[in-house]
Design goal:
4-stranded mixed β-sheet; alpha+beta; 36% helix; single chain
Length: 191
């Protein structure tokens, strides 16, 4: 089972994450930020990950950032040595007016490249500038390449939600086990 638990406690936040990469899409998320709960539930549902995440803290900025740091660490731990995984995955996901591309390489090297513009300063109870920051924290602590590009869209809620759906699908594809792979998918022999 590719399961992990991460606890992160700082002077600002307390985060608990349980992740099953081979789940069925069940999410139990409570971050004190309703829109972040919604985004993480969409990520889990469309990636078929079982995700339990609890986050408490002083400011929404710290809660969102630390939740994504802990989730990135949980992804890295659950992947283990990465033997037999596809390693790379991508998804282009529509949501009404929005269309988003997400691509992942579970390379062991962090490289986030996010192109997402929002018209509004707030997405419900989450600052829109946090979306890029959260994705950077996730990729950096998960040690993977993450490219996200909002190809089109007018509704900011739809763009943000499509990002997390596409991320879930792309990550699920990259983390999936290939019946033909028996080794780590790298000519170096390690990731």
């Amino acid at each position: 089972m590719r399961v992990s638990k991460v606890r992160r406690k700082t002077k600002e936040t307390k985060i608990e994450v349980e992740l099953n990469l081979d789940g069925s899409g069940k999410a139990n998320v409570n971050t004190e930020i309703k829109f972040l709960n919604h985004l993480l539930a969409s990520f889990a549902k469309h990636g078929c990950f079982d995700l339990k995440l609890r986050a408490r803290g002083d400011f929404k900025h710290h809660i969102a950032e630390d939740a994504m740091i802990a989730l990135g660490e949980a992804i890295e731990r659950a992947l283990g040595k990465k033997v037999g995984i596809e390693r790379m995955g991508d998804a282009t996901v529509p949501m009404d007016d929005a269309l988003v591309l997400a691509a992942v390489d579970l390379s062991g090297r962090a490289f986030p490249d996010i192109e997402a513009k929002f018209a509004k300063r707030k997405l419900d109870d989450l600052n829109s500038d946090m979306i890029e920051h959260m994705l950077q924290a996730l990729a950096t602590n998960g040690k993977f390449n993450l490219h996200v590009k909002v190809l089109r869209g007018k509704n900011d809620h739809h763009k943000a939600e499509a990002i997390f759906k596409a991320l879930g699908v792309a990550l699920a594809r990259a983390a999936s086990r290939s019946p033909r792979r028996r080794e780590v998918p790298s000519i170096k022999g390690v990731i």
